Amino acid sequence: MRGWIAQSLAHLRQEAARSADTHLLKLTFPGFPGIDFYFKDEAAHPTGSLKHRLARSLYLYALCNGRLRPGQPVVDASSGSTAISEAWFARLLGLQFTAVMPACTAPRKIADVQALGGHCDLVEDPAQVYERAAWHAAQGACHLDQFGLAERATDWRGNNNIAESIIGQLAGEPHPEPTWIVCGAGTGGTSATIGRYLRYRSLRTGLCVADPQGSAFIHGWRERDRAATCSSSTVIEGIGRPRVEPGFLFDVVDEVVDVPDKASIAGMRLLEEHLGRRYGGSSGTNLVGCLRLATRMRAQGKTGSIVSLLCDPGERYDRTLYDQAWLAQRGLDASGAEAALRATLGSGEWHEP
Ligand SMILES: *Cc1c(COP(=O)(O)O)cnc(C)c1O
């Protein structure tokens, strides 16, 4: 058992050594002179999303806690990105993996999990994923439990976590201490890691969570209510959870911005225009959050930098968010929101998308 754990840890160490850090891409917009925008390209990970970091941490955590045994099947609940990364690491370690996902998950993500040798157990209601994953665990699978453990499996003080990487990459920039870092909330792991790290390093940077309008996190954070649930569903995958996940720490978040789905879709399109590459819906949500804060900085006559994340690649949503017919069927015409965001980018004044 100890021998197998040591061997598995060696595989994970080798994988980390083969992987490079992700790029921090810089953008400026005519309406915001003196404000620099940076986007950390988490789509550049081998498994295409920020969940590559989390999946590696969750396997390490399960192994070092003695919870994962040789030949034991592995399960987790996911909206897709984590499942892809976990399936990839399961293959690396020679383990069988099952992803419990909502049936409405982008078809491309389901296909990616299967291509990596993972099984997909699809449930109709997104809120059922937790119970179904627990059922698999009761049958003997090791539950990686991203929603329960994201906040503690990641080493928030260092080990090149996402916050340490961002702050290191900004060292030579005009505003190395960002005014804001903006991220979404799925497991809450990213915001927990960034928020803790900012305090640990005594930085004055504010942490803003941008999440779909009506999400449980937005209600929960505003009322300090961990029992809050969502008041509307979202088509933006990875964020906008139906409940306040255990990994979401209210106290390290300084601000929340709620973003309608149409605005996130518009943001996603503007990112493609400015970066020449497609990213997923939650990256668009992040851009809208950045612009909201930037208009406020500009109104106060402040300069500085704002950092956010590109969470996953656009190809995963070819048949959903990037498909006009799919959007039309759901009444999601984002052209008005796109015009509003464009006006904000050009003028530096907030136009409600
Ligand atoms: C998980 C996820 C997020 C949010 O990150 P957390 O660390 O889980 O809060 C944002 N976007 C995408 C695409 C994700 O998969």
From TrEMBL:
Catalytic activity: O-acetyl-L-serine + hydrogen sulfide = L-cysteine + acetate
Domain of life the protein comes from: Bacteria
Broad enzyme group: transferase
One Pfam family linked to the record: PALP
Keyword Disulfide bond annotated: no
Keyword entries, A-Z: Pyridoxal phosphate
Organism: Novilysobacter selenitireducens
Pathway the protein contributes to: Amino-acid biosynthesis; L-cysteine biosynthesis; L-cysteine from L-serine: step 2/2
Domain Tryptophan synthase beta chain-like PALP stretches: 22-312
EC number: 2.5.1.47
InterPro entries: Cys_Synth/Cystath_Beta-Synth (IPR050214), TrpB-like_PALP (IPR001926), TrpB-like_PALP_sf (IPR036052)
Protein name (record): cysteine synthase
Names of required cofactors: pyridoxal 5'-phosphate
PANTHER family: CYSTATHIONINE BETA-SYNTHASE (PTHR10314)
